[in-house]
Sequence to fold (255 residues):
Amino acid sequence: MTFQIETVPCLSDNYACLAHDPETGATAVVDVPEAAPILAALKDKGWRASHVLLTHHHADHVQGLDALLAEHSAQVVGAAADAERLPPLDVALEEGERVAVGTQTGIVIDVPGHTVGHIAFHFPDSDVAFTGDSLMAMGCGRVFEGTPAQMWNSLQKLMDLPPETMICSGHEYTQKNAEFALTVDPDNHALISRKDAIDRARAKGKPTVPSQLSEELDTNPFLRARSPAIQAQLGMTGADPAEVFAELRARKDRF
Ligand code: ZN
Ligand code: FE
Fold:
């Protein structure tokens, strides 16, 4: 059996994710932007949180933790590298280390760039990865602490996951991301039709997260720094993909 995944809208545009193992009842909460909607979603499902997986230290991903722990006794798991800045961790992990949530095993991937201690959790048996503010639907996190080259390296690790992997990321930024993507990849038919689907979903108030890695590979410009069409659009034909990524990120920052 695999995880049942629930996306929980929090704050104005954040997501927490719930990952429930039906065999054991174990349930991971991934990031805690605020407690109330997460507590309500857990109650609605009849699930008890057993783990909290934190992707990075920003307040909009951790600030609901105490209020969640007041009602659910869960193990808090995060990056050893950022243990000083994260809330107190029960389990501090490094790249390649594993965390079991019921029958499912998550593998930690270091994805620095947005913050230097940012991690993702890949659960191969459920074909899901929790990527926080690293890889997002049609976008990627702003590079606050690391360098663009570091972020590009992080994204390449995620690009190597199986293409059927579902990407659970931390924000509903997809419509704006799609608008930007069209400015650098205007002739990409997969992108044009995905943007239509996103606009329809948002018009109905539906989340666009999670998304499948395969569609990100086809339409997310930040994963397409090697694309000849994007390179040509930027006037960077033949350039180092890390430099193309840096230019894409800089343009998005100004968009
Ligand atoms: Zn963040
Ligand atoms: Fe965030």
User: Anything to note?
Assistant: The longest helix spans residues 189-203. The chain has a mean pLDDT of 98.
